[in-house]
Amino acid sequence: MAIRKRKETTDLTVNPGSDVILTITIGNAQIGASIVRFDKDETVLAKGDISNLHLGKAEELAGKTLKVTTNILDANSLTNGIVATYGFGSCIPAVVTFKDEVKTDGDIISFILDFNFR
Amino acid sequence: MLLLAASGHIFAQKALPKKDSLKISDMTLPTAPGFILADKAPAAIDKPVNPKAFGISLINLWQGGAVDVTPYWLTNKPRLTFEKYINNRFPVLQTFNISAATFRTDTSTSLSAGFRTQVFKLYYRRNREAMLKKKQEIADLLAVEDPDKLDTAAIAQKNAELRAMFDIQRNRGLVIVELAGAIAGNAPNNTYRNMYASRSGIWTNIRWAPDKFPLDFIALGRYTWSNSKPKDSTLLDFGVSVNYQKGRFDLSAEYVNRHQLQKAVNYDRLAFVANFMISESFYAVAAFGKNFDKKDNIMAIFGVKFALSKERVTL
Q: Which long-range contacts (CB under 8 A, 24 or more apart) does B258-263 make?
């Protein structure tokens, strides 16, 4: 079983006066789990299945970086495709999608992501 | 009669795990709808199968084979979560598989196109809950911030256990309704110009594998007709098979009643089929019984089959 790491950085523009909510969806009927925390803060905000996670007020988030690690196992015997969708309520873009593919059945892809709020 | 057939399944698009062992349920002759329509499948009642994203099956090296694809899985499905996939009782699109098959004799070539899909699939609640529980166990193992600290051995073990739960040919506690159809054409003298559509058919297989019971049952309804003159072979088949699978053995008994509509004549077939896996790539098959024909209808087949390859082909 191979693990491939993929690092990405995405800038998000927050809408002032609103709450920022994060939902992570693992597609292709694969299995994944995420760990979410802010940069320079060891406290883990949430881990596992991330749904409607309240990240804070837009004004509080501006200038911060959200660090998300999502490990996805190719559990579906019908496809090697991996797709993870990060939905940010009150941000532009509101949806960030990463697509990839494992080489061998049962491999893992780790998305190591930085989301910069602006 | 000795049937020596080399059968192989070369699966592309998806690889088998390196340590994956070939199961007896994998060691069946091609079941592309075109083969069934052309009576090239060894059993009159075929089992519903897990679709392959892309696959090639061979009857043997010189007579022909089939290629099949499940288009749904050729593109990403961002919204299809594991839970939605498990709970979908009508996976028509997800399992819609199209195939093309060819079978060649000394004097003619048969070509066919077919489809098969699962119009209904129901896992017993206990099975569904077990799958979701296994999924959660894997997700818990994946919830690690440093990927280098993932327990890959435990994840691989649980992934193998989960995949075994999806094996619809071996698992118990499920009901599957499969719909299939095909059209076949013949090319006498192996000449393209002579090709014509010869036969079409549509059929359904319903498999019921009760939980905690050693047998499972398949019911068949099949309607086939001739596309060319003389159009005197419109057939309506009804049948049932009882199957027992354990370890290296796969035993089945099947009965099919065939009604020839134009002539209002009934035929039937009763067959017992035994498969024994000698090794991972070599197994014996025996079939005895009575075939449809009024005369010369004793069926006695003993043969061996071996896999050409179970390795992945990367496109």
A: B258/B292, B259/B235, B260/B233, B260/B234, B260/B235, B261/B234, B261/B235, B261/B236, B262/B231, B262/B232, B262/B233, B262/B234, B263/B232
Q: What is the CA radius of gyration of chain A?
A: 14
Q: Do A78 and B77 touch (CB under 8 A)?
A: no
In contact, B167 and B25? CB cutoff 8 Å:
yes
Is B51 near chain A, with CB under 8 Å?
A: yes
CA distance B129 to chain A (A): 16
Tokens 């979908």, residue? Answer: B88
Are A79 and B53 a contacting pair, CB within 8 Å?
A: yes
Cα–Cα distance measured from residue B175 to residue B211, given in angstroms and rounded to the nearest whole number: 10
- Sign of the Cα torsion A27, A30, A31, A35 reads negative
Each residue's pLDDT expressed in tens, for chain B with a length of 315 residues: 333 333 333 333 343 333 334 444 444 444 567 767 766 555 677 777 777 667 666 555 556 777 888 999 999 999 999 999 999 999 999 999 998 888 777 777 888 899 999 999 999 999 999 999 999 999 999 999 999 999 999 999 999 999 888 876 667 889 999 999 999 888 887 787 888 888 899 999 999 999 888 899 999 999 999 887 766 689 999 999 999 988 788 899 999 999 988 888 898 999 998 888 887 656 787 888 888 877 777 877 777 765 443 333 333
Contact B150, A108 (CB under 8 A): yes
B152-166 and B125-142 are packed helices; what angle lies between their axes, rounded to 10 degrees?
A: 160
Structure tokens at A77: 């015997």
- Specify the pTM: 0.81
Q: Is A116 on the interface with B (CB under 8 A)?
A: no
Structure tokens at B123: 């896992």
Tell me if residue B214 falls in helix, strand or coil: coil
- Chain A residues touching residue B163 (CB < 8 angstroms): 75, 77
A108: left (phi over 0), alpha (psi -120 to 50) or beta: beta
Contact A110 B166 (CB under 8 A): no
Mark yes or no for CB contact B52/A47 under 8 Å: no
Cβ <8 Å between A35 and B148: no
